[in-house]
Amino acid sequence: MSAEIEYAIEHNPSYALLKLSLQANQMVAVEAGAMSAMDSCIEMKSKMKGGLMGGLKRMVGGESLFISEFTAKGKSGDLYISPGVPGDIQHYYVTSGKNLLVQSSGFVAAGPDVTLDTQFQGLSKGFFSGESFFLIKVTGEGDFWFSSFGAIIEIPVENGYVVDTGYIVAFEDTLSYNVETIGGLSFKNLKTSILGGEGFVARFSGSGRLWIQSRNLLPFLNFLHPFRPVKSNN
Q1: Is 233 domain-assigned?
Q2: For each of the chain's 234 residues, which pLDDT tens digit applies?
Q3: Is the peptide bond before 86 cis (omega within 30 degrees of 0)?
Q4: Dihedral through CA 83, CA 89, CA 90, CA 91, nearest 10?
Q5: Does residue 232 form part of some domain?
Q6: How many structural domains compose the chain?
């Protein structure tokens, strides 16, 4: 069991920044490219792998996820981490029998004894925030941080809850779920639903915690689309 990592989440919920205070020789795994500043005693090593200790894959075709490992060599030091989109950061302490499922873009950082893996959800359980049909499964023991687009809201679920799939960030694996279209159409009517402009919701059951984000990235991208630079043919 590794020591807990001292941390602070600053400037949340809109532009959250994660500050990790590493003890001498303590290591943390971080989303590649998310480091914004650090003490000079901290060394970085980039890896392409799948859990913290091997084989994390994401997206269609089993593309590997790049992870950077940061170690405070010989003395303590601070590490600042900035996620790729403006939003919030949430801490979760993983223990045996207390696992987490996180949208594939939500990984920020994890302690050395936390293991990451993906689960293929199939068409009936995909459609999370416009991502591929993968969620990261977080197991092991230690600190884990995940991010959102917008603020993060924690919802304690008892028995049942319904959430638009574009707003789901993470949930405990004590919850089970099914995806259906708004209006009650079954998933076999997928083609008709998409052409009709209908969205998808996840219907959760069981008991556990669920985290949602206050904004949906896809509508925001659609809003920005008319303002994109267009190459002139002249």
Answers
A1: no
A2: 667 999 999 999 889 999 999 999 999 999 989 999 999 999 999 875 444 433 444 433 344 467 899 999 999 999 999 998 889 999 999 998 889 999 878 999 999 999 988 654 543 444 444 444 467 889 999 999 999 999 999 999 998 999 988 899 999 999 998 888 776 554 444 443 443 345 688 899 999 999 999 987 666 666 566 778 887 666
A3: no
A4: 60
A5: no
A6: 1
